[in-house]
Amino acid sequence: MDGDETINLAIDREIEREIAEIKAGRHPNLTESLESLARAKEKKIDAADRHRKMQINNINALYEYEVEDANALFKVILLGSPTSSCTTPTQFRSLEHPHRIFSLQKYLHRKLIQRCKRS
After folding, report:
1. Prediction pTM value
2. DSSP-assigned letters across all residues of 5-69
3. Is it the case that residue 96 has pLDDT exceeding 60?
């Protein structure tokens, strides 16, 4: 065996060892890349979960606001406004936004307008 064959044999052994490590999932470059990808995946999942929770909180808050708004408007129609029966309180500005109105709010708002027209 001469020097070239020895070098080639050593290179072949090194390549075979690296192939075996890759197949076994123990190669340092492979494990480092997998760990990096796993960390990035966890960060994306955490960010998506935070965003989902924030959206749920916003939807719940909007729902609670609209229920309170409808209840307040209902009270104004039933009991009358303490200052004037024909004044729409500023808290009912959401009624002007057509995408955020419950059917009950529409109905109650129409009743309030009819009441104001009669007085």
Report:
1. 0.48
2. HHHHHHHHHHHHHHHHHHHHT--HHHHHHHHHHHHHHHHHHHHHHHHHHHHHHHHHHHHHHHHHH
3. no
